[in-house]
Amino acid sequence: MRKQDLKHNKWNKLIYKVKWLYIRTIKIFSESRYIYLYHKLLHCYGMNIELDSGYIDPTVYFDNYDYSIITIGKNVTISKEVLMLTHDFSINSALHSIDKNKKGGGIFYPLFL
After folding, report:
1. Residue 18: which pLDDT band, with cuts at 50, 70 and 90?
2. Domain range summary for the chain, segments of one domain joined by +
3. Contact 108, 85 (CB under 8 A)
4. How far apart are CA 4 and CA 21, in angstroms?
5. Strands 61-62, 83-84: parallel, antiparallel or unpaired by DSSP?
6. Given this model, what pLDDT does residue 1 score?
7. pTM score, two decimals?
8. Which is it for the CA torsion 32, 33, 34, 40, positive or negative?
9. How far lies 108's CA from each of 43, 58, 81, in Å?
């Protein structure tokens, strides 16, 4: 199974959420351990992340369409309640509003930080 297919499996989603809750709980006791484990988890699910990159707050939401198109380099800090999107469905929405349905999906962009 490819890493990007992990999110499509219901059991893998559940396992991810359990791991994430565990890692988030670790943050209470050790911030450095939280950072290390969270980076490992994101890397495991296909994100291109430097294991020695900076702090990522637990409230950050990563679009889980395809983690492999997200890259986070060294010394990157992501603050509270940031939404990281890798897609844009606004074109489809605009075409739908004028009754010119576009087949396909949105536009997907890689995200580099």
Report:
1. very high
2. 3-112
3. no
4. 21
5. parallel
6. 42
7. 0.72
8. positive
9. 20, 24, 22
3-state secondary structure labels for all residues of the chain: CCHHHHHHCHHHHHHHHHHHHHHHHHHHHCHHHHHHHHHHHHHHCCCEECCCCCCECCCCEECCCCHHHEEECCCCCECCCCEECCEECHHHHHHHHCCCCCCCCCEECCEEC
Packing angle of the helix pair 10-29, 31-44 (nearest 10 deg): 160
Q: Which amino acid is at 74?
A: K
pLDDT per residue as tens digits for the range 36-65: 999 999 998 889 998 778 899 999 988 777
Structure tokens at 109: 């962009």
Residue 1: both structure tokens together: 């199974």
Q: Which two tokens stand for residue 57?
A: 């707050």
The whole-angstrom distance between residue 93's C-alpha and the CA centroid of its chain comes to: 23
CB count, 10 Å around CB of 35?
A: 19
